[in-house]
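Build the 3D complex.
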Amino acid sequence: MMFESLKKELKKRNINLSYQRLKILEYLAQNQCHPTVDQIYTDIQKSIPTLSKTTVYNTLKKLVEEGLVRVINIEDTESRYDINIEDHGHFKCENCGNIFDFSINMDSLVCNGLDNFRIFDRHVYFKGICPQCS
Amino acid sequence: MMFESLKKELKKRNINLSYQRLKILEYLAQNQCHPTVDQIYTDIQKSIPTLSKTTVYNTLKKLVEEGLVRVINIEDTESRYDINIEDHGHFKCENCGNIFDFSINMDSLVCNGLDNFRIFDRHVYFKGICPQCS
DNA sequence: GTTCCTGCAAAAGCTTTGCAGAAGA
DNA sequence: TCTTCTGCAAAGCTTTTGCAGGAAC
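Done.
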């Protein structure tokens, strides 16, 4: 499944599969709730008490560089990380703060003015109020 | 034009048109390049040497709350401000860092999973390399 | 007089950097 | 051995907060 295929990807790219990195990967695969660095760090620290936040930052940076994880920047105060790299949108509830995924068809988006631009990454996010908070 | 209609909007909402605020508004209207707080502060300080960054933050916060200005969060390290509040997308060149506008038709975007969500704000941004940097 | 606005200084919060020791190939 | 990885401490940045003086109505 996802976790296993990610491990293979890392091996293929000669990225060491250290215990810390495996735990972070596992956490992202199991918690697809777009966690912040602090959430990842705090939760994994329960099983690895010596874990450093720097390691979390380093690992996430590497995973993003390799294109295995995406950064979500909706608020300037926090980066969130998403192991689901397929095209999808994010909805942030301005009341509870939760982030919801929704499916989109990027190809359906009509946009003009990008001739000769090389596009690597497409992000769509909405803000509003979720049904539970309504 | 834009600057004048913005002034009217502020008056309507009982927001004092202080000298500092007018200069910030004028700057945003004339520099639709999605400036950061620091760019706004540095440039306006040339004509208002006593200007404080706090005032820039306060003013922008107010303008965003009133829906007259939008915040663009593409990178976690910087918030950018856009006085153009009509639907449009942003393209950030990963080489030169410039942000380009492009037109989009939000209504054309097919998305599922947002029944009963109240949407206030829609953002679309792409990342890649601009023609000049290619 | 009351409210709002400005600006300084300090604090807060997230992220990066430098570095030394440890682990892995 | 050489490279990579970890984790501590410190530094760097952006943004927020507290507060006093000033301006506006």
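Chain B touches chain A at residues 71, 73-76, 78-79, 89, 91, 94, 100-105, 108-131, 134 (CB under 8 Å).
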